[in-house]
Design brief:
This protein is 38% helix and 24% strand. By secondary structure, the protein is α+β, with helices and mostly antiparallel strands. The strands form five sheets. A seven-stranded mixed sheet has the order 14-13-10-11-12-18-19. A four-stranded antiparallel sheet has the order 1-9-8-2. A three-stranded antiparallel sheet has the order 3-4-5, with no helix packed on it. The structure holds zinc ion.
Length: 436
Amino acid sequence: MAWSGKPHPHRLLLTKQFPLGLELLPLFQPLMQAANRIWNSCVWHSRKTFEQEDRWPTEGELKAKFKAFAAWKELHSQSAQAAVEEYFEAVSAYRKHRENGRAEMNPPGFKPKGHLRTVAWKRQGFGVDGNTLVLKLSRKKEPIKVALPGGWNVVTLPDGTEVKGVPVEVKVKAVVRRRRVENLVLHVTLDLGVMLVDLTGAVSAYDYNSAMFARAMSEGHLDLFVCRELLSLVQYRNKAIAEFQEKMSRLKEGSRRWRRCLSAKACVLKRLDRCIRQMEHALTKSFAELDEAEGVAFAVVGDLNGLRRSARTGMKGKKASQKINQMAYARLHTEQCYKNLMRGVQTDPWTEKNTSSTCCLCGARNPAWRRHRGLWVCGKCGLVLQADLNGAANLLKQYLFGSCTGRELPFAFREVRVWRWDGRRNRFVQVSSRAA
Ligand SMILES: [Zn+2]
């Protein structure tokens, strides 16, 4: 029987972090450096193959090549393989960018000799003994035992129930600041099993956009999340990257000023990323909490696999700027997915075909009725609505009836609720609808 690697869509995996302290560094350092040597071997071997044969080696080729290396024998075989897999993923991403015409991308490069690479232990690579994790090394070596606090494998869901998870992957990461190792952190990914989701209840639909996120709900609620702060952070991040890139292109690669520039860039990006991620989490959490409070069983989001992003905006000539101004939709989607799952809400991707060019109230379709400044003005029934809310309502209709065109809305709208980012409270709060 074929075993499918595809996990159940309602399986909840969460990662917990445990700081280990520097006392364990002497134990883990040789392993992390061995993983780094495997990475560097991958880089070296791939470059040589590319120069000589004009192709990139496959994952299997790399694994077979390094099996006899001394570095390979320091680690558990699965951990060593994980290092190669990580490199292979990085190279694949680089090649994909190249194919998409992004010539400025560089292939993954060598890491300095003493770099502490994250080491991963997969299912067969570790054991559990009460509150102790037993991390296996290569066959001849003694495993490393790590004591964890009680309740390390327990996760509390939003409704207060405690779920015991089964660890499926363990990683050890080094926290480095100003070239000094400050701590080691253990990341344990827990499998909390297949969550029970409600199969009866209301339906909500979401329209992800750059400055606005719209929500429509089958009981008539319409919500508009104003995300200008988030968008401007994303844009500012891209601008900062471009500026550093420009500055560094004028310096000699590897020189002292170039290196200083590189670390300044990393520092700026790290700070911005933290702000962006926090806002994204707050946004998806508000979605999940709203859905839970209103008895939603299915949350519908636009299927990201479609090609609609560039097509729908009507800004075809400005494709480049469009790409830069986008947010991480896929990441937001995953976050919403697992936050919903923790609350028993199922997330369903659905096609957004015609949702932005159809009137949600009467079902007539005409792309020209989407006016500038994000307003939908229907030429048939006269509906005037924020265009993203119209899109969300259509997505909801599409999910319920198969298509959003040629059909009237089966329920009445309630008042539009508007949510804005509150920087002082670090979350989205409801404001009066006039403020939008
Ligand atoms: Zn209409």
